[in-house]
Amino acid sequence: xxxxxxxxxxxxxxxxxxxxxxxxxxxxxxxxxxxxxxxxxxxxxxxxxxxxxxxxxxxxxxxxxxxxxxxxxxxxxxxxxxxxxxxxxxxxxxxxxxxxxxxxxxxxxxxxxxxxxxxxxxxxxxxxxxxxxxxxxxxxxxxxxxxxxxxxxxxxxxxxxxxxxxxxxxxxxxxxxxxxxxxxxxxxxxxxxxxxxxxxxxxxxxxxxxxxxxxxxxxxxxxx
Length: 224
Hints:
By secondary structure, this protein is α/β, with parallel strands linked by helices.
């Protein structure tokens, strides 16, 4: 019998919780100037690390996932999670009802992202923002399929064009380092650049600065 993806792959014994989600969500709130109290939907929220991070940093949050584990796990924290196949079905929210739609490491699991993007646009209020993060194919191609549920790789150009095609404005798309120290000290990117020239990405690398210097994300955003 197939096991729950979130409960199995993101088991806390294998992937312990850290302070990173709170740091990343604070960075995104500051960078995109998201006002306190804004209503955010975390699509593919999983065990809720980033959902809780946004909540702890002053936003109102809801989740959307296809996992029963997500519903029960976040329910204990008082966060509403709607269970649905969000890649195929209409999402259970009214038009123009959220200020932010966020997803991290989700869109690469979807064979066809059109429903995901269309529904994100529909439920965002005018002026609302989509923020999507996905593994960067150019730097992570050697380990992309370590997760067999990955089906659609993205580059900065690919994610940018996807958002533009579905009417988002002020679209941005960039390679993103999952290293808080680089957010504060951007000149350290040169060290990461050198590491990428002499080493290959690997899921087995345990030194965070090295691993996340080799394996970048694509960060895309746009306004409705």
